[in-house]
Amino acid sequence: MTRKIGIIGLGHVGATLAHSMVLKHTCDHLVLIDTNEKKVKSDALDFCDMVANTGYPVHITVNDYAALQDADVVVSTLGNIELQANNTNDRFAELPFTSKQVVQVGRDLKASGFHGVLVVVTNPVDAVTQLYQQYTGLPKEQVIGTGTLLDTARMKRAVADRLQVNPASVSGYNLGEHGNSQFVAWSQVRVKGHAITDLFSQEELDAINYESLRGGHTVFFGKFYTNFGIAAAAQRLAEAVINDSHEEMPVSNYRPEYGTYLGYPAIVGRKGIVERIDLQLTEEEKEKLLHSAETIKENTRKGLEHA
Amino acid sequence: MTRKIGIIGLGHVGATLAHSMVLKHTCDHLVLIDTNEKKVKSDALDFCDMVANTGYPVHITVNDYAALQDADVVVSTLGNIELQANNTNDRFAELPFTSKQVVQVGRDLKASGFHGVLVVVTNPVDAVTQLYQQYTGLPKEQVIGTGTLLDTARMKRAVADRLQVNPASVSGYNLGEHGNSQFVAWSQVRVKGHAITDLFSQEELDAINYESLRGGHTVFFGKFYTNFGIAAAAQRLAEAVINDSHEEMPVSNYRPEYGTYLGYPAIVGRKGIVERIDLQLTEEEKEKLLHSAETIKENTRKGLEHA
Amino acid sequence: MTRKIGIIGLGHVGATLAHSMVLKHTCDHLVLIDTNEKKVKSDALDFCDMVANTGYPVHITVNDYAALQDADVVVSTLGNIELQANNTNDRFAELPFTSKQVVQVGRDLKASGFHGVLVVVTNPVDAVTQLYQQYTGLPKEQVIGTGTLLDTARMKRAVADRLQVNPASVSGYNLGEHGNSQFVAWSQVRVKGHAITDLFSQEELDAINYESLRGGHTVFFGKFYTNFGIAAAAQRLAEAVINDSHEEMPVSNYRPEYGTYLGYPAIVGRKGIVERIDLQLTEEEKEKLLHSAETIKENTRKGLEHA
Amino acid sequence: MTRKIGIIGLGHVGATLAHSMVLKHTCDHLVLIDTNEKKVKSDALDFCDMVANTGYPVHITVNDYAALQDADVVVSTLGNIELQANNTNDRFAELPFTSKQVVQVGRDLKASGFHGVLVVVTNPVDAVTQLYQQYTGLPKEQVIGTGTLLDTARMKRAVADRLQVNPASVSGYNLGEHGNSQFVAWSQVRVKGHAITDLFSQEELDAINYESLRGGHTVFFGKFYTNFGIAAAAQRLAEAVINDSHEEMPVSNYRPEYGTYLGYPAIVGRKGIVERIDLQLTEEEKEKLLHSAETIKENTRKGLEHA
């Protein structure tokens, strides 16, 4: 009956996600884990100070891996955002650092007996999701990265702004790496009953593609982190699991034909990836996706060498 | 028909409150104002990146006082939390700094034609609420500080923890300054059908009183700011206004018999303070409240001299 | 600032919709109107008995057209469902009866000075929406019928059941009359990254089409009314207006090329129909739509003759 | 992880409660049981037709007691409201009829292996709760009636109307039978910082007491059933269990000193009645409560004789 969710890493994203979960009463029991014990205890107490004014009960456990044994979902939001700031905003710049933490956290999760769904936000997310899968030993379906779910949201926002429509009324996806090699799969984007390619010139499509990729950079360089958009993506993904919603969404999931985790739509439910979708992409899109997969694999290899 | 809310100051509290309002869809139109234009624009874009995943539309205007002319509620969350860290955590340490900003913001609000309800979170909140009332020229009923609403939540949490009950099932209030001279009015606290004084020894009551006051310090020194608890208090107060809920809650409101704003229960609705409550306090409590009122007035005078 | 919604007709659908609005706190002020004064007063009091347990304030006005002058949205749910039961479930069987009420209500709304958006649920909805537009004198964009929004939901449910996916992850629409001449526009239905026609045989598509049309009949003959599905459709439509959400949804809107109101996707916002969509239908679909439009016009003419 | 709730009896109250649970997404899995199979299947399908427009997944099982084996909460809303209409609105008029059903349902629940919390709405609720406890063999703490939770809401509404305050800002309770022998325990009612007895004359208190008792009658005789207020009470009680909220609320729970179930405040959580409260009542209130307890026991005895 209890709904239990763990969040590992109470930085900007982790704390914002925990706030979202407390406000939306997504679970009964939150387990918060961070190497900065003072910070995570402070956040936990701060959340408890909300209850008298919101009325929703909140049970929080701090820094106890054993409490994750029966968690439904664990979200990894650990990272060191400063590494990106110093490295021209390539998310792979974080890999040598985060990979060490991820290996340890993966082992600790495995030792805890955790057998739910692991949602990965930690960057570079496609590589890190793979690492987690290896070190937790969980089935590939139960380890999911937020992938291009946020980039897709940014693409939809860019389209929606131009057409005065709700972003949720735009369908379609960004595919591939949650990073610089991703792209909008224009063949899949529809809005107002039309293929997007009927509505915009190639120049305009390029501008939207750029915005969906660089949207994160604009946010990033305004405050040197991003939190609200990515937390909303992670919240939605965690809800799809905990509610067994069987929603289709583009997330980082393992695609055997590419030999890597990458952003691609799937049906998400209580067991994690319930079904992989097969899109009918154009030849150009297939090439871009292959290139993006190669980039993920190459950068993962290099990043781990430097770790 | 449109529900419009302004937030002035997108620091830890302002950004957390804006996040809460976006998640709870408290309003249709958010106006965000901050002197750090890059930061506030970054936050605004980050909020827009949530929409495709939440489905709720968000309209955000940045740094435009004119847009506040027809706002229903404006919340002041500006401040410089580092000033507290350097000054033994006395909220009055912020006054010389914030008072200058508050005077300017008050004048800008007045010039905008804003005539809704101003909710003040900026510390020292009782003094700053008074300053805002003077410089905006709004009726006293339309300028409200969060006051001891957060301290009361902390008291209820401390009581609730001891009795294994929901904090919302504890009634009663902390009164006076949102600061070191506040106190729990034990004569008003009831839980499980009993006066709290029947359930705990004086020693234990002192411990609860200390926790409700120092709770903020524990949170503060863990991360050098507090945001979630105070944002939940401000959210509840803003909702009471925008929903015309006529809830009773302890907030900083002007009490003529004390000649100052201070934390004391009132009925809150669309017009702000709809009715002042009159409690039947013990003689000791009356003295403490008088002392707290004097402290607010004295510190306000001193703080403004140093401004 | 106040959000005011009127509901005319507190039968099964009207009462269920009001319940939904109270639970979701869609508005601050509900105006409930019904010719059975005892019933509507009873419902109003029953809603007020919810408040102590939900905490949300509810303001309700009963049977006062003058209170609709500044309403944001009015929903017409009046009707006499027994007329359908006696007439082989053709929604046009209600027209001779409801048309008389609709003319009077339209005039009363006009006299009240109401100038918001009128949402029509009353059957036969396409004909009644047109009548309301004529008698209120509101712009065509401000009078909207729920149309095939419910039928589309039924189609999505039928598709979703077969594919183990969330109905909200199915895109596409039922078009035309909210009645027996409607049809699923298969060219527009996509799910799991595929055109629906790639996934199902014609036989299976026919079965889904039948279910989406007859789904209502199954519900109807189980309890001799339908309320939950249609109330959810009306709730979503009213929310799109009051939140200015600019969502795309298939609703009954006036299409000049067909000379009638009928179910067809549009962008909905605060002003009602913000934009008409133009679909790229197949020739067969175009013919079906033309036929459905003719059916609506013919049945409307006949129904009014018998009124 | 799954949250499963059963509702037995899909009449006015059961269907309204199910609607509330679907709208608030209180659980993942609803089990609906009714002797009128056509009606309950119709309701189930009608709820599924909501999903495409609300986005929340709903899993519904119909008429399968075995599915209740691992339910968290089961709510009994069965009854025959027409029996009240013919019997001067005494809820005990339903006992000879409902007691037979209750015995059978109690046995079926026991046979299913259900071991969660049983919430009883069926009237006469205090008697029926006791019967359910006997026939299910569940611990007394796990069988709870809505009792005077609704009457208390009506009392708070009557007080709130007079004082222009939110009903949720009134504290206190109606005690005893959910029926004619109940009473407001004035010694416990506080509002705006005062004992209610300081604010109203005895005459006015009598009027409020009458309204809180007769409020149900006014609703009842306007539509010959009541549903919204009682469904909100049952929803809150079920949420307190499923969220383990440890809220205090007046519900029908077994009090050994009176030898019966009756309306009296208790702390409610996942295990049901987590703690019994002991109020400090006046002598007059103690006598009224004793009288109400005797009435419940006497009427239960008589009603069962006629069954």
TrEMBL record, chains A, B, C, D:
Residue ranges of domain Lactate/malate dehydrogenase N-terminal in the record: 4-145
Residues the record lists as binding NAD(+): G9, L10, G11, H12, V13, G14, D34, V121, T122, N123
Keywords assigned by UniProt, alphabetized: Allosteric enzyme, NAD, Oxidoreductase, Phosphoprotein
Domain Lactate/malate dehydrogenase C-terminal: 148-305
Active site residues of this protein: H178
Pfam families, sorted: Ldh_1_C, Ldh_1_N
GO terms of biological process kind: lactate metabolic process
Annotated GO MF terms: L-lactate dehydrogenase (NAD+) activity
The family this protein is said to belong to: Belongs to the LDH/MDH superfamily. LDH family.
PANTHER family given in the database record: L-2-HYDROXYCARBOXYLATE DEHYDROGENASE (NAD(P)(+)) (PTHR43128), L-LACTATE DEHYDROGENASE (PTHR43128:SF31)
Protein name, UniProt field: L-lactate dehydrogenase
